[in-house]
Specification:
By secondary structure, the chain is mainly alpha-helical. It contains two helices and no strands.
Length: 130
């Protein structure tokens, strides 16, 4: 969207400048004046156009800076949101991993107890048969 606005502003500025120059030149060339007056008028018009272009350029630069700053602000916000979301995902993953480790530890304990019980039962049966 900002890119469209910048392109439109640039197109408007170029169109304005081209129209101003063409209009001023045509008006001066068709005006019934002496060469000296015509040259003076051309200089004045050129000066006016230069001043007008300078103002339009300042405005365009200010707009461009505003658009760039807004883009930077938005990208910073997106990066910040992404970091926050990544932090939440990592936290949730750690909780899940911790739970899995805990359950695995419990299962390991049960397996060890069952193995010991089996060994004890074997020893007890062996002792009875001997």
């Amino acid at each position: 969207m900002a890119e469209e606005n910048a392109g439109m502003a640039k197109g408007l500025l170029i169109g304005f400048l081209a129209g101003s120059v063409v209009g001023a030149v045509i008006a001066l060339l068709y005006a019934p004046k002496s060469g000296k007056e015509l040259r003076r008028d051309i200089k004045e018009k050129a000066s006016d156009i230069k001043d007008d272009v300078s103002e339009k350029l300042k405005f365009a630069r200010a707009k461009a800076v505003d658009i760039i700053n807004e883009g930077k602000r938005m990208s910073d916000q997106i990066v910040s949101d992404a970091k926050d979301e990544a932090g939440h995902i990592l936290h949730d993953a750690e909780k899940m991993l911790s739970g899995a480790r805990e359950r695995a530890g419990e299962e390991t304990g049960k397996a060890k107890a069952a193995f010991r019980a089996g060994v004890d039962a074997y020893k007890s049966e062996k002792a009875k048969s001997s």
